[in-house]
Amino acid sequence: VRHGKATIEPDLLAQRVIERLNDTAYRDTNLVVREFVTRINNNDRRALTWRLKLWDDTERRLRERRQPTVDLEKKRQDEFA
After folding, report:
1. 56 contacts: CB under 8 Å, gap ≥ 6
2. Residues 21-54: pLDDT tens digits?
3. pTM of the full predicted structure?
4. Which secondary-structure segment (H or E) carries 29?
5. In DSSP terms, which residues pair with 29 in a beta bridge?
6. CB of 30 within 8 A of CB of 23?
């Protein structure tokens, strides 16, 4: 995967370049051209300490993602009983 970053001004010209180059063939692949969006440093999961940050907002998770552990031996006995 390769990437590049270009600064084009004015904004109208930049939008035209994006529209013209996006999805064009280049070296056996199609380009993906889009506007660059800067990441917010205090919300970047690539930061080493992101897991240590407290969540001060409402919990949005409706249920636990992980499935409960299953006793495979008991399940096998029940299937062949």
Report:
1. none
2. 999 999 999 999 999 988 777 767 677 776 777 7
3. 0.50
4. strand 29-30
5. 26
6. yes
Within a 10 A sphere around the Cβ of 49, how many other Cβ atoms? 6
Angle at 45 between CA 42 and CA 51, to 5 degrees: 85
**Could you tell me which of 58, 6, 66, 59 has the C-alpha nearest to residue 35?**
6
Distance CA 81, CA 26 (A): 62
Comparing CA positions, the residue from 10, 15, 50, 12 lying closest to residue 36 is 15
Strands 25-26 and 29-30: what pairing?
antiparallel
Q: How many residues does the chain have?
A: 81
